[in-house]
Amino acid sequence: MEFNPFIPKEYAGGFVHRFAHISRRHIETSLFVHGAMTTAMFGEILALVCYSMPPAPELAIGIAGPENKGKVLYISTNCRNPTAPPNVMSWLFSQSFRWLGQNTVFRYIVAYALPEVGYGATYQAANFLYTGLSALRTEYLPDIDMLNTRGLPTSLKTSAGIGLVRRVRPRKPRYVAVLGKPL
Description:
Layout: E1 2-4, H1 9-19, H2 25-28, E2 32-37, E3 45-52, H3 57-64, E4 72-80, H4 88-103, E5 108-112, H5 121-125, E6 129-133, E7 137-142, H6 154-159, E8 164-169, E9 173-178
Parallel strand pairs: 4-5
Antiparallel strand pairs: 1-2, 2-3, 3-4, 5-9, 6-9, 7-8
């Protein structure tokens, strides 16, 4: 197994779409895409982790304080091939953190565990600190299942006869890793 800190976004997009079942948008907005591969160059991807800027400045300030808000990265996506070794994500995090600590100014990594996938066992195995749950949020969804109206303005949705249903989004466990010196 080899660590590759420079996986092209085009190469990673298909892997994420296939194994994480999410859009390629998470790859396109990433600052760094690191991977565990069978061989360092042109090998099969076993696992990926994608880092982006935090989704909200308040999150970065809450994690690292106003003086260090520019040193926070957010794990936007991580996924593994089901045939990869079971510890591949922990190994990838350790290699990735070492590379980030030596080659960037980032010192704090924040990640959210998806309740429907698991409650952060991978993050706990990689020595992330559990820091609580995300804020309680609501979202509005169309009241019919097969219609995607995310891009439509509310006025158009209601005038087209598409009602919206307000749903409380589940709170996600938040984890933080500190690069470099231990706490």
